Each structure stands twice: as C-alpha cells, then as structure tokens.
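Tutorial handout. Part one gives the primary structure; part two gives the three-dimensional structure as tokens.
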Amino acid sequence: MKNIPIILSILATAFLASCDSENKKNVADSSPSISVTVSQVSNNSNNPFLSVSGKIQSEKSATLSTRMMGFVTNVPVNVGDKVNNGQLLVAINNDDLQAKKAQLSASILEATAAFKNAEKDYNRFKNLFADKSASQKEFDDVTAHYQMAKARLEAANQMKNEINSQFAYSNITAPFSGVVTAKMIEKGDMANPGQPLISLESPGNFEVMAMIPESEIAAIKTGISVDVVVKSINQTLKGIVKEVSTSSKNTGGQFLVKIGLTKSEVAILSGMFATVQFPIAKNTKSNSILIPKDVIVSNGQLSGVYTVSQSNTAMLRWLTLGKTVGNQVEVLSGLNADESYIVSANGKLFNGAKVSVQ
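Part two.
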C-alpha cells in the first residue's frame, strides 16, 4: 500500500511526458514547409561521350572595392536594382580629401604667382644679357630661380591630379550598366582598402565555367558546339567553346574551359549548375559519383548532404568523400546513383524539417 503513491506519481509523469511529446509533434507538423530545389545524382559511366559539370555566370561582372578608409555615408542601391554606367553605388566620407584639396588650391595659387614673377624676371634678364647689360652670373641665378618656380608649380598640379583621382575611390560608381547582385556594406559601416563593397553583373549574356581533366583536354578546341543541360529548369541550351586554358597550375590539375551560351528566352540565372555535354568520345571510363562542393554540409570532421525523405522531410546523409574535381567532390559512400539531394532551400534546413520540392 505504501508503494501506491509512488506508482501513481510515475504514471502521472509518463502521461505528462506523453502529452508534451504529442504537443511538440503537433507543433512541428503545423510548421510551414521549406521550398527546396533538388538535383539527381547521375552516373554517366554508360555514356560514351564526355560530360562534365559546370556553373553558369554572367560574361560581364565586377566586385567593386576602394583604396581608402572611411565611413560609408550612402549606399543608394539594393540587391536586384538595375543601375546605369556611372551611377553612384557607394559614397565614402571624404572630408579629409576636401581639406587637402583646399590646402592644395592655395598652394597652387602661391606657386602660380611665384612662377609668373620668376618668368617676368627671366624674360627681362634674358634681354639684358643679350644687350650685355647683365652678367652671366646674374642671368644664371635668374634662370635657376625661374626653373625652380616652374618645377614647384608643376609638382602642385600633379598633386592636384592625385587628389582628384582619390575622389573616384570615395564615390564608387558603376563601371557598366547592369544589376546589383550583392551588397556587402551598409551606411555607417567602415570601408577599408581592398574590402569588397558591392557586386554587379550585366544580364543577358551568360557563359559556363567547366573543369576538364587532363586526360580529356587535348580533344577540346575553341569553336566546338556543345549541349548545356540545366537540370534546375529542365532545359537544354546550346553553347560554343570560346576559351580553353593551357595550364592547370592554379586549378588543381583541371583545365578551365569557358562556354558561351547562345541567347535564348530561357530564364537562366548566374550560379545555376549545368552539365556540359561535348560531342567527343571519352578517353577514360569512370563510375564515380560527383556532387557540387557548394551543397556539402560540414560539422567538424563530418561531411554530408541533405536529401528528401519519403515523408517530404529533410534528412541529413553523412558521406565519405574522395578527391575534388574542379567545383565538385567525389562521393565514395553514403549516396547512390540516381538518388536526389537538395541543392538550395528557401530557409534553414535541419533534420526533420518539412520541405516541398519545387
């Protein structure tokens, strides 16, 4: 009989824990789903033609920085804004330059007056020396004084050009018409020399950057027509090889190839992954699985990728990775051919998060 209160207490605790677990489950179930984009692992071992992965980018893009330090006073643009050539993008406080410019203007006035006076003396003594009314030493002294005044004026004017050029780094303008793709600074922040401030690109003309292994690069020539498969939008575009690198020194043993995309009405964006199919027979066969490095999730020494479970939830799969090939990495285990993995998500992913595949 003495154990009855203890048994009742245990049962009550278990009941409350069950209710709490059920409530948490209901809350999780009612949470909104995260929109995700998936890509399927492809195994091209049976494809006799060369096929490599690449990334789409704009043919004309720029990341702007400055050579001066100062507080940002204005950033009149946002990501996605269209800008014209010469339009102000970032303004940096230039009070110190304004002060130097005012001091220099005064120095130029002083140097100009001194030069004009020395020039008059030089012309006068030049005539006197020609008439033998002035000695050689007097003429030499006046000539030296004139040349020094001329040099000081020239130096002051060069300093003016230098300060005027620095104003270009306090007012960052668009080098071409395009769209703002990234803004790395806000009003009130401190800008530092070399710090990336804003990025923009010119839309309409796109290219694909692909890495070719050394065993296949000999067959790649400029002017070759290729097919570019963009899985995220289920489209196949036409392209032409326009540039082939002749060195792999700085690209990890892979050779960089640029493919210009033919203009079309297909809505493609910079950063999309693509598969470039060359009309060239492969020299080597490979059964390896490659996925983009950008989709890898790292946690300490572990590396994984998010997949979509049968119940439409995000599931983190831990992988064993092999060698890096360009912008891709080899998967030794943890992911099989023809399985899908999440490429991008409109929100923060975690294990069990509800997802909807776009």
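Part three, for discussion. DSSP finds three helices and 22 strands in the chain. The chain has a mean pLDDT of 83.
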